[in-house]
């Protein structure tokens, strides 16, 4: 049992009086109450739940099932988004023969940028029910930009989209475009 003891020593000699008992404070109930409160708050506190993004992934094929044929997407029913470095995003609706540095267009992540581009491409599509957005992050892309594009899919109500690696010919044109748009180094003065 925990107690507080107060020692009373007057140090004077003289008449002996009956000693008064020091006050007795029992700390056991206070300690019990403290532990009960700690236990109560530990049990009723909810911890932060992690934010999870739902991705509709295709079912894993059975080992004995035949392999499906590659799906060809009509270029007019699709748009390819290339997520680049430094918060840059590029788009095109062309094949390998038609894509070059001039036809690889750049836009921004705001409402007047990528949202408008996706909505215009969907409006021009032959079959809007099959309109597909192909998202291709580069190695330089940041995760935040990838999540922003997935949010754009919800904003523009595009339920059909795919995430794939950037093709080598697209990567080469992207590298030229990004490398070509960098500020040129000042020329050396030869005077």
Helix fraction by DSSP (H/I, runs of at least 4): 25-40%
Distance between the termini: 94 Å
Largest sheet features: 5 strands, mixed
Average of the residue pLDDT scores:
80
The parts where pLDDT drops under 50 for at least 5 residues are 182-191
Radius of gyration: 35 Å
Walk across the major sheet and give the strand order: 5-4-3-6-7
Strand residue percentage: 5-15%
Number of strands: 7
Please tell me what the overall shape is.
elongated
The H-and-E topology, N to C, reads as EEHEEEHEHEH
State the helix count: 4
Q: What structural class do helix, strand and pairing data support?
A: alpha/beta
Describe the structure.
This protein is an alpha/beta fold and 191 residues long. 30% of the residues lie in helices and 14% in strands. It is built from four helices and seven strands. It has helices at residues 28-44, 111-124, 143-155, 168-180, and strands at residues 3-4, 25-26, 78-83, 89-92, 105-107, 132-137, 161-163. The protein has a five-stranded mixed sheet with strand order 5-4-3-6-7, covered by helices on one side. The protein has a two-stranded antiparallel sheet with strand order 1-2. A hairpin with a 5-residue loop joins strand 3 (78-83) and strand 4. The longest helix is centred in the first third of the chain and has 17 residues, at 28-44. The chain is elongated and about 115 Å long.
